[in-house]
Amino acid sequence: MESNKVVGILGIGLIGGSMALGLRKSGWAKECIGIDTNRPNQKRALELGLIDRLLPLDEALQIIDVLIIATPVDNLVEQLPKILDQFNQKQIVIEVGSTKSPIYEALKNHPRRKQFVSTHPMAGTEFSGPEAAIDGLFEGKRCVICDQELSDPDAEKTIESLYQDGLHMNLIYMDSISHDVHTAYISHISHICSFALANTVLEKEKDEKRIFELASTGFESTVRLAKSSPETWIQIFHQNQENLMDVLDEYINTLLKYKGLMLSGSYDKLKEELAKANDIGRILNRK
């Protein structure tokens, strides 16, 4: 694929860096310009070959066709309106954050709202920074496009192409409110429970040597997300607090049910509950 599009990426970490790798490899982007206020990240992104060059934001805005904002979600609410203020009529901006409702509110009355497309590529790891960028991270994964009716049709088509042709992702569509509900139930609860389990083990098992010796693949896979960036996830938990509280209440009630069944010796009933949980495999194994 050959393209003449110049893409700017604000925030060259796991997601931004991986997008740069994918868009350059597929040829969707003629050039990827890095925009990052973190000087060590700037230098490392260039050393790793994630981007073609670095520019300050005001200079990058003079030449880019598409801007990808891959910064923590609290920053997005402040950044996006100011960036849109500086856009010409042909430029497009997207963000890749894990919460959508605050951004929807921040931009709903902006005169250039149609040049913004709200997206969430559903891929990642527990690592962060330029070193965490992975070639092929997004291939075969799903990307959510939110509130598509609020974006210019041509802008939306361009971003659909970015994800489908540039990153080889599958697209799904929903509104911002639904997105935040579903990600709380599926993604955000997984992270907060992983953090909680890791802290529980660290509190109860003071012998670090025993944790290292006895931890097997089950434990490692369950607490993997606890290695994620607290700075990133505290902002997501805060922004999606209402939905997260709802699913946390359900999770705590389930744990209390299990505890009650064990205390009463009702292991046949507990076995039934565990068997019900096995059904998640049927859902996740769909082709």
Automatic annotation (TrEMBL):
Domain of life (superkingdom): Bacteria
| SUPFAM superfamilies per the UniProt record, alphabetical | 6-phosphogluconate dehydrogenase C-terminal domain-like, NAD(P)-binding Rossmann-fold domains
Task: Please give the Pfam families that the UniProt record associates with this protein.
Answer: PDH_C (PF20463), PDH_N (PF02153)
EC id: 1.3.1.12
Q: Which residues form the Prephenate/arogenate dehydrogenase domain?
A: 5-287
Query: Which Gene Ontology molecular-function terms are recorded?
Result: NAD+ binding; prephenate dehydrogenase (NAD+) activity; prephenate dehydrogenase (NADP+) activity
Q: Kind of enzyme, top EC level?
A: oxidoreductase
Keyword Transmembrane helix assigned to the entry: answer is no
A biological process term (GO) from this entry: tyrosine biosynthetic process
Instruction: Enumerate the InterPro entries for this protein.
Output: 6-PGluconate_DH-like_C_sf (IPR008927), NAD(P)-bd_dom_sf (IPR036291), PDH_C (IPR046825), PDH_N (IPR046826), Preph/Arog_dehydrog (IPR050812), Prephen_DH (IPR003099)
The protein in question is named: Prephenate dehydrogenase
Name the lineage: Bacteria, Pseudomonadati, Bacteroidota, Cytophagia, Cytophagales
